């Protein structure tokens, strides 16, 4: 399961699930947790998808059937962003971008619990649309601080990709109300989360 074959769970399982588990482990054994964190990061960088393969292997051993798209999306709402997806600069524009990024991901994470309640889900869709607009506004505010033409172009490219996946999410919702395929909505929401993370990473790389 990769970005190419229709699901972005490969890209979000490390920050959402594994790093969350390791953060809890740090309370018991800081050294071991940090060693594992570095090992997973290096392995995932060299072999994208390894983290997902690891988790799926454990689930298979336990004879558990789990919809990873639904599970990771739901879990997103209960974990804090790691430093990798959080801006450290203190200016209001950067902190506002942090807040809008976290807010959008939090709202998206509610989809698995609300999708079966049509009235509630329609309200959530409105919240998502508003959160997307606010995130894009925050990106524009932060763009002012990015030095050089190259940096601004890189962020503009990420913003265009985010808009593309936002439109894809909207189209997926239309299909869902016709066909009832909830998993496609989960996948599309995970794509949006990934694109949100990519915006933060780009700003971080260009400004910190």
UniProtKB/TrEMBL annotation:
<keyword id="KW-0333">Golgi apparatus</keyword>
<keyword id="KW-0037">Angiogenesis</keyword>
<keyword id="KW-0963">Cytoplasm</keyword>
<protein>
    <recommendedName>
        <fullName>Programmed cell death protein 10 dimerisation domain-containing protein</fullName>
    </recommendedName>
</protein>
<dbReference type="Pfam" id="PF06840">
    <property type="entry name" value="PDC10_C"/>
</dbReference>
<dbReference type="InterPro" id="IPR009652">
    <property type="entry name" value="PDCD10"/>
</dbReference>
<dbReference type="InterPro" id="IPR048288">
    <property type="entry name" value="PDCD10_N"/>
</dbReference>
<dbReference type="GO" id="GO:0000139">
    <property type="term" value="C:Golgi membrane"/>
</dbReference>
<feature type="domain" description="Programmed cell death protein 10 dimerisation">
    <location>
        <begin position="7"/>
        <end position="64"/>
    </location>
</feature>
<dbReference type="GO" id="GO:1903358">
    <property type="term" value="P:regulation of Golgi organization"/>
</dbReference>
<dbReference type="GO" id="GO:0006915">
    <property type="term" value="P:apoptotic process"/>
</dbReference>
<dbReference type="GO" id="GO:0019901">
    <property type="term" value="F:protein kinase binding"/>
</dbReference>
<keyword id="KW-0053">Apoptosis</keyword>
<dbReference type="GO" id="GO:0005886">
    <property type="term" value="C:plasma membrane"/>
</dbReference>
<comment type="similarity">
    <text>Belongs to the PDCD10 family.</text>
</comment>
<dbReference type="GO" id="GO:0090443">
    <property type="term" value="C:FAR/SIN/STRIPAK complex"/>
</dbReference>
<dbReference type="Pfam" id="PF20929">
    <property type="entry name" value="PDCD10_N"/>
</dbReference>
<keyword id="KW-1003">Cell membrane</keyword>
<dbReference type="InterPro" id="IPR046409">
    <property type="entry name" value="PDC10_dimerisation_sf"/>
</dbReference>
<keyword id="KW-0472">Membrane</keyword>
